Amino acid sequence: MFVELAKYVDLRWRVAAGVVPVFLFLVAFVFPASADPLRLIDYAALFEKYSDRIVRNADGTKSVTLPDGVEIIDTGDGYFGHDPKGAVGCVAMLFIEIEAAGKRCPDLMDDKQATGFEANKAKLLSYYASNAFPPVPVERAAENYGAIVSTVAARKKQKACDAASLDGVRTFLPGLLDVEALETLLATPRLPVMDPCL
């Protein structure tokens, strides 16, 4: 759940009783746990590059621990990535969800929050582009991000923007706006995977 995400990525979000259901309602667009939210990681190429590190597991899956400490698993149906230092891909998903909510509900953030959000998003996208495999220009990461935000916002366009719903979503903004915590999360280059996440 969200508390576990905060534990791993050190963004110090605080979950108030009754708020988590509101946020889960927000995350109606489901990102599979195995997914790369910006669709930039070539997992098959990673397995090929690190074929000497492949471990064949008893459950039929294959796994590789990358030099950066991230473990990737080939389930046969897709790929799954786990980062013990904190899942940057999961944080990217949260940015996508919050920005999509903001498109639907323009009053979600005030001007100062919106400026901080954009600044932190830029740092996140730069990191994501540099640490994807293979690395890509930041413009491509931004293009993919924007397209996914639009898709999520369109799927949620019927959701309410009432005060109670917005207050619930705003509970999660301090973590995304925390410059120091985000910079700590992004201090170590590594593959931006999704697990641990919500």
Written description of the protein model:
- The protein is α+β, with helices and mostly antiparallel strands.
- The protein has one domain (2-39, 85-185).
- It has helices at residues 2-9, 20-26, 43-49, 88-104, 111-131, 138-155, 163-170, 173-177, 179-185; strands spanning 55-56, 62-65, 71-74, 79-82.
- Helix 4 (88-104) packs antiparallel against helix 5 (111-131), helix 4 (88-104) packs across helix 6 and helix 5 crosses helix 6 (138-155).
- It is elongated and about 55 Å long.
Q: Runs with pLDDT <50, length 5+?
A: 1-30
Strand pairing plus helix content: what structural class? alpha+beta
The strand order across the widest sheet is 1-2-3-4
Average per-residue pLDDT, rounded, comes to 82
Supply Rg. 17 Å
Shape: elongated
Helix content: 40-55%
Q: How many domains comprise the coordinates?
A: 1
What is the H/E order?
A: HHHEEEEHHHHHH
**Discrete helix count:** 9
Strand composition percent: 5-15%
**Biggest beta sheet summary:** 4 strands, antiparallel
Give the termini distance in whole angstroms.
4 Å
What is the count of β-strands? 4
